[in-house]
Amino acid sequence: MAIESSRNPGAFRDFEHDGWETVSVGYERHFARLTTQTVPAILDAAHVAEGMRVLDVCTGPGMLAGAAVKRGAQVVALDFSGKVIEIARRNVPGAEFRQGDAQALPFEADSFDSVVCGYGIIHVPEPQKALSEIRRVLKPEGFLAASVWEAAKPGNGFGLLFGAIRKHGDLNVPLPHGPDFFQFSEPDKLKAAIQEIEFRDAAVETVEQTWELADPLGVITAILEGGVRARALLCAQTEDVRNSISAAVVEGMRQYRSSDGVYRVPMPALVGSGRK
Q: 105-116 pLDDT, tens per residue?
């Protein structure tokens, strides 16, 4: 497949960086309990074990780094946001953290036994560069494992959110151009992208995840307090449109309400892996 890149990488990188500097605390509050559910599958796909040297690219709050440390790995973790690194250092004192660019990793070639990336590849301006850099710093026979969201569909949370925006709002608001957020969100597409970077034994696993929310507007609150692109998309709508989107989300959330009053929203992910 042809991996899509931003038409204006610098502007998109600045947009993402400014966003994460703003919402890093909100992301940890709202999304960490969801994305943590993918951690075991990522570490297993990367064959992370005791004594291995592991790089966690786009570490976020450090969930992957922390779990890899618990497996006995020697972990280096990287993110381009200083605010994010502050949070990750607090959460995982046993790992080494660096601020840096996923598209220009500050490491020598053949440095790591495994490289993991949790939902980071969908936030970089030029994903092909980031994947190529991951391959460069891997030792021969080393493993990559990366997660992305499954495509927005009627039966999952992103399908509900973007369906409401599509029906009541405008998806074409003036934001810096970024790669399609869901370009890797089908198993065949993710596998093809990994193979394009010349990884061997490419494989993709679907990970079923559930986002537990106490409020039917919890998805929108999480996006507004902890998202970047989707947050900017919502904020660009008029107040009346935002109210209509919220009403549609509340209506759609009824199907996910359990007898205990908790909304359990399906948020599946894909974990792609390959070997250098």
A: 999 999 999 999
Residue 33 half-sphere exposure, CB side, CA atoms within 13 Å? 10
Residue 28 lies in a domain: yes
Count helices and strands (H / E) in the chain: 10, 9
Distance CA 20, CA 227 (A): 8
Within a domain: 239: yes
Strands 269-275 and 96-99: unpaired
Residue 4 is assigned to a structural domain of this protein? no
CA–CA distance, 57 with 107 (Å, rounded to integer): 12
From the CB of residue 40, how many other CB atoms can be counted at a distance below 10 Å?
13
Q: Please give the tally of structural domains in the chain.
A: 1
* Full domain range(s) for residue 201: 9-275
What CATH number is given to the structural domain containing 240? 3.40.50.150
115-160 tens-digit pLDDT: 999 999 999 999 999 999 999 999 999 999 999 999 999 999 999 9
> Residue 64 and residue 109: Cα distance in Å, rounded?
22
pTM: 0.96
Tell me the torsion sign for CA atoms 86, 182, 15, 220: negative
Whether residue 80 lies inside any domain: the answer is yes
- H/E stretch holding 207: strand 200-207
